[in-house]
Amino acid sequence: MPDARGSSGRPRRGDRKLSGDRAGAALKVLQITDLHLRDDARPLIGVNTEATLIEVLDQAFASFTPDVVLATGDIAHDATLPTYLRFLQIIEQYHHGPKLCVPGNHDLIGPMIAARLPIDPLRVGNWVFVGLDSHVDDEVGSQVSDRDIAELVAACPPIGEKRHTLVATHHPPLEVNCPWLDKDRIQNASDLLESLARQTTVKGLVFGHAHQAVEGQSNGIGLFGTPSTCFQFEPESERFAIGDEQPGYRWLHLYDDGRIDSAVERVACSFEIDLTQRD
Question: Global pTM?
């Protein structure tokens, strides 16, 4: 089973900085997730989600120029074509290079495809980036079939090749100790992770949905859950609860030998949560 626990028995959550020396020789990947963009200027629980996304991108791109940007679901809260087009417009103000998007439970695949969001596997340097669609339109929970797993494995480099794979999906493949969230995780995660481990080229899997930082591992595969670019959920909450952590993002530095160095960073944003604005 995947392990997301440290010596305390709790998921590892500490934010830290990446080493500048090691970062110089690495492929730099920026993961953003759970953007919850709207098709107008309405706030979501008191948060202007477009404004917080822009603050995240401003800070991230001031640190590094990424080789790849991953957007791991819930790109939209209002899943309309204009929302996805606005997302692309914002991202392309910062990054014209390779991008990979996967849908989350708030997304709809039709408008994503109509907006031409990049959903196909990427090869950059010695790394292959493959998306796993864990969402079902208009449902909160995940759905990953045996066929999905087989197609994911087929997209990975063959065993023995000197290339490595990073998988991107939306729903967590492990429990994050929030019962109201854990019920919607990937239910056949053990089958998924065992299949990926047999490939040997798969070195990491990044995900969203949890609106918090989580790190774990399974059979040598690093598992990385990343904070939302807007509001966060309260860690270890029994029921829906908003935490006081700031918007965040994750850097992954990927090395030719398959090593992954990763860290979450935060931006200081000012907003007041208003739970009457959940829709």
Answer: 0.91
